[in-house]
Amino acid sequence: MYACVCAGTLLGCDAAPVLVEADLGPGLQRFDIVGLPDGAIREARVRIKAAIENSGFDWPMKRLSVNLAPADIRKDGTSFDLPLALAVMAAAREFREDERDRLESYLVAGELSLDGELRPVRGVLPLALCAREQKLRGIIVPRENADEAVVVRGIDVVACGTLGEAVDFIRNDDDFFRVEAPADDELPGERDYHFDMAEVRGQAHAKRALEVAAAGAHNVLMVGPPGSGKTMLSKRLLTILPELTFEEALETTRVYSVAGLLRDRAIIRQRPFRSPHHTISDVGVVGGGSGVPRPGEVSLAHNGILFFDELPEFRRNVLEVMRQPLEDGVVSISRSLMTVTYPASVMLVASMNPCPCGYHGDPTHACTDSIRDIERYRSRISGPLLDRIDLHIDVPAVRYDELRGCEPGESSVDIRTRVDRARAIQGERFAGRGIYSNAQMGPREIQEFCVIDAAGHRLLQRVVDKLGMSARAYARILKVARTIADLAADDGISSAAIAEAVAYRSLDRKK
Ligand SMILES: Nc1ncnc2c1ncn2[C@@H]1O[C@H](COP(=O)(O)OP(=O)(O)OP(=O)(O)O)[C@@H](O)[C@H]1O
Ligand SMILES: [Mg+2]
Ligand SMILES: [Zn+2]
Question: Which residue, 28, 39, 112, 219, is the most exposed by fewest CB within 10 angstroms?
């Protein structure tokens, strides 16, 4: 007899529907799976047979063929165990006709252990979205994945602990296994940060620069001696960024779902902050790897901050592979049979010391490095990556009287209010253009929206000539000046805005 069950496979951060078709015919006992299954699915034969028998059901002693359709996409992962087992049982007439109809109206995902327990799988959020797109009634998932699935509204989420429970649900349509969707404000997730800009003493210049960066979504590089607060400031940049929208939260959650990193969170409510160690490999940053591709740090930071502490220590090829995602906001990974893309829209925040010893330019410590050492150190990050960083922020050591001064700084909420206003202006400006922030402007938008007057031109001319700035820096100055004007709710770009933007290009200056 023939039977089928809906399942899904991951393609990047999306899931594509897969139909598991099982046919039980006369002949010697054998079990074939066709339709581009990967190794884990071929091995599923062993798990499925043991799980079915150990759950107290009969294994059909006939010729069993399973096809995964469509045949031209590679199916990966262990989430096919449960749909395979149920398809086999349906083909073996374990279910009545109405029960088979019920089974066919759900997308099924889950890994089986030999004794029939269901184990959690990766990517349940995209699978649940896929079930909804396919207009299925719901999704049957392992119990540990239930929180992830209920984020998707409008479908039934059925959570089971064992194969036996899944069979029980299909036979009895028992509401016991259905999971209630929580009210929106009950969705687990931390909206409060445990730190605040107000904790940073002094550093008015650096805080202002971070406000500009947050307002225009510009990448930043902080330069300063050890202990000046670069790491502290970076973490707090998160607290002045606009709140995640639900759509953004869902996008970021998909990445974590696919990476199997959601743990007990249903949906990610905070912008991610990823801070990979400088020994990370290029695959670790952009994703990929042997076997099933996985998202890398730049995708795990999607809609949030990717922090490269001690930038010059990172491997050269890592800095190279970062260029494409920073430019396009996505990562593409090519495989023999397919190309998967992961979202990778991040704010890059990097930090470095001004020289190898760390104290070049510091008033209280002497720098022990030669000019050549300093040049070699800085040249490690020059070029491709530096080209994608709009602001360079000097973070000098804080003076003792500022550190112990009791005046608290401005709170993150207050700064964020201004950032939100500037972002709203940008949202209106770029409506319908597929970009959202000044940092994303291309040459055409720069020409249209970064108009400067004669005085502004004269100022820029002097800067480019006297400070020896590259022509490339020019576009970056204009974008940042646009953001500074937006923070002031100015339509035009004033000379003061240009002067401030120029001040954020310290590393471009010829010494
Ligand atoms: N402006 C400041 N206000 C309050 N505390 C500060 C400030 N700057 C630094 N500190 C304190 O000094 C500690 C070290 O700062 P942080 O780790 O951010 O320095 P850093 O610039 O990242 O140094 P490194 O180059 O060594 O990584 C902080 O944890 C904080 O306690
Ligand atoms: Mg640090
Ligand atoms: Zn030095």
Answer: 28
Instruction: Write down the pTM of the prediction.
Output: 0.84
Answer whether the bond into residue 70 is a cis peptide, omega within 30°: yes
Nearest Cα residue to 449 out of 488, 491, 487:
491
Does residue 132 register a pLDDT over 70? Answer: yes
d(CA 126, CA 262): 13
Nearest to 169 by CA among 140, 128, 136: 140
The answer to whether residue 431 scores a pLDDT higher than 60 is yes
* Residue 206 near ligand 1, beta carbon < 6 Å: no
CA distance 458 to 87: 74
Q: How far apart are CA 180 and CA 157, in angstroms?
A: 8
Q: What beta strand segments (E) does 102-147 contain?
A: 106-108, 111-112, 118-119, 138-142
Nearest CA to ligand 1 atom 26: 226
Instruction: Identify the structural domains of the chain with CATH numbers, from first to last.
Output: 2-181 (3.30.230.10), 197-405 (3.40.50.300)
CA-nearest residue, atom 30 of ligand 1: 229
Q: What is the pLDDT of residues 215-265, one digit of tens each?
A: 999 999 999 999 899 999 999 999 999 988 888 888 999 999 989 888 777
Q: Whose CA is nearest to atom 27 of ligand 1?
A: 226
| Ion ligand 2 residue ranges (Cβ < 5 Å) | 231
For 8, the 3-state DSSP assignment is strand
Separation of CA 371 and ligand 3 centre (Å): 9
